[in-house]
Write a structure and sequence with these properties.
By secondary structure, the protein is mainly alpha-helical. It has helices spanning about 20-30, 35-55, 85-95, 95-105, 115-130, 145-174; strands at about 1-5, 10, 15, 20, 65, 70-75. It has two domains: about 1-55, no CATH class; about 65-174, no CATH class. The chain has a two-stranded antiparallel ribbon with strand order 1-2. The protein has a two-stranded antiparallel ribbon with strand order 3-4.
């Protein structure tokens, strides 16, 4: 016989840390659901449904002002403002056509946060250049699987070529 740890009375049932083992097993199998948990789950589903109803905020308007050190402070592009000096901004603006060409040439390597951003940039490039053939540019953000494979193959080929060149240099020294 063992003693029950809660009141010190003798009982014939085995105990677990002073509790009747049969009662502990029964509690494990008949665990009840806390009504507060059910209410929390309902509220969480309602919150998710409400989040889907809220319209996404429009892109933040770009604000331009003179910065503390006399640069052109442009806010609204990212987390921090972009602040070039007037001469730097002039050079960026003069390179506009080159920047557009660069974006088109390197489209598969560029990343976008969303497919919507990629579509906006593609549409802008088509309107700016008047080139309808740009419609073939993918609006999937990030490099395509084909581009990743091609880049990896190119890197491997470059490594092999450099190893062969090193071997040739080593043989010339002999």
């Amino acid at each position: 016989m063992t003693t029950n740890g809660t009141n010190g009375q003798a009982s014939g049932a085995p105990t677990i840390l002073g509790f009747d083992a049969a009662k502990v097993a029964a509690l494990k199998t008949t665990r009840s659901v806390d009504p507060r948990d059910v209410q929390i789950a309902k509220l969480m589903t309602q919150v998710e449904a409400l989040k889907k109803q809220v319209p996404k905020p429009e892109a933040k308007a770009i604000e331009i002002k003179v910065g503390a050190k006399g640069g052109i402070q442009i806010s609204g592009l990212g987390r921090f403002p972009f602040t070039p000096y007037a001469y730097q901004m002039m050079r960026i603006l003069q390179a506009g056509e080159r920047i557009k060409a660069f974006i088109i040439e390197n489209w598969d390597k560029l990343n976008f946060k969303t497919e919507e951003q990629a579509k906006v940039v593609k549409d802008w490039l088509m309107a700016e250049t008047g080139d309808a053939t740009l419609g073939v540019l993918s609006t999937e953000y990030g490099p395509s699987p084909e581009q990743l494979e091609a880049d990896a193959a190119g890197e491997v080929a470059d490594e092999v070529a450099s190893e062969l060149a090193e071997d040739e240099v080593g043989q010339d020294e002999l």
